[in-house]
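Title: Request for sanity check on Aminoacyl tRNA synthase complex-interacting multifunctional protein 2-like prediction

Description:
We are preparing a figure and want to confirm that the structure record we downloaded matches what your pipeline produces today. Could someone re-run it with the sequence below and paste the raw structure tokens into this thread? We only need the token string, no images.
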Amino acid sequence: MPMYKGMNCGEHALQNGEVDPALKALEERQDEVLRRLYELKATVDGLAKTVTTPDADLDASTLSRGPAESVFRATADLDSLLGKDLGALRDIVINANPAHPPLSLLVLHALLCQRYQVLSSVHVHSSVSAVPPPLLSCLGPRHIDSYARQRFQLGFTLIWKDVSKLQMKFNTQSMYPIEGEANVARFLFRLLSAEPQDPVLATQMDCWIDTAVFQLAEGGSKERAVTLRSLNSALGRSPWLLGQEFSLADIVCACCVLRAGQTTSAPANVQRWLQSCQNLGHFDCVYPLLQ
């Protein structure tokens, strides 16, 4: 009797190069189990972030917003920028004082929403008695898929809290906080992969950011007047502060000018530049907070 007649049907099927239906069903079940495990990991990570971030007492909304078209064209990949973290949502948690809304970070949030799937939320800490409604909706309308964290690439949580200086944590369990709106803005801008490659331009960008913070936002009337004249001179030579390209310098400086209430008294080139910033659409989230 030939040997193959003693084999079962499954072994015969495998000899003919076919896939055992039982094995195929087992692989499909394994794939489904792995998929569910990744979803469960994302959910657990979200709960862990809530537990390890006791700053949020009231969930005002879960939001996602972005302008129609981004001004930055460079490609960005979170895995290459931040390292791979399979199944977990990368969370950015920012504590900010409602008396000093971080306007530049709101603009950067809008730009990030153009590049990534961003799950954004606004919370209120118990140290703050009341927050104006525009601050509760400053990141845009509620996202319909906010319950499914695994569908997003980036989490952006803004907590209104009584803090003396703005703080940001990217990994709430192991990362020391980044302090100051300008430093957080630099971190967020890097996620857009839009930093100048020319070291001279990169240095100029940092100088403009520091000037805006220390002289426009924190300086007196004399410092603001000097800075406005410097801005006017630079913008008389090019449409943007670094030349032909819109950059983080424009975002931070424009927000500081707007916050200082210098729009109507600003020199002509500065007013034209502010109008150009507004025309981009990325600053739409800022203007309701200035009223």
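Thanks, this matches our download. DSSP finds ten helices and six strands in the chain.
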